[in-house]
């Protein structure tokens, strides 16, 4: 059965190109709609919760920067459109699952570094997204630089 709606999740680093390439190929071969998502993680989360200072300005800068990078990607790939691009705050796993459900996506595409050993203990977004996903998940193998 072909996929109808593919959601590609990007971290906005240079590593997102191979992930988008794979998602594009699949959207073309399946005749599927292609949506793009990036999640801006709340800064307080990186510091482990409560932070005794106001991070709202920094957070806004982070969001604006992400918007610029996302727009650059949309301009670079003709299959991506503003209409089907999403930029939200939150925790990547939770937000990606929520969006996939809301938009009725049947495939989520993420990048995976194939970590092992100690690095695996630090966790990976691909692993995280796979658990409890509302649809199929494709982890595109990213070559270590
Ligand atoms: P990581 O395990 O964090 O190195 O990320 C692996 C993959 O997870 C990336 O290639 C993206 O597909 C996805 N990903 C990581 N962070 C985010 C994010 N903030 N928003 C959306 N997708 C993300």
From TrEMBL:
Residues 56-83 form a coiled coil. Pfam families: Usp. The keyword Aminoacyl-tRNA synthetase does not apply. InterPro entries: Rossmann-like_a/b/a_fold (IPR014729), Universal_stress_UspA (IPR006015), UspA (IPR006016). Keywords: Coiled coil, Cytoplasm. It is found in: Cytoplasm. It comes from the Bacteria. SUPFAM superfamilies: Adenine nucleotide alpha hydrolases-like. PANTHER family: STRESS RESPONSE PROTEIN NHAX (PTHR46268), UNIVERSAL STRESS PROTEIN A-RELATED (PTHR46268:SF23). Belongs to the universal stress protein A family. This is Universal stress protein. It comes from Pseudomonas protegens.
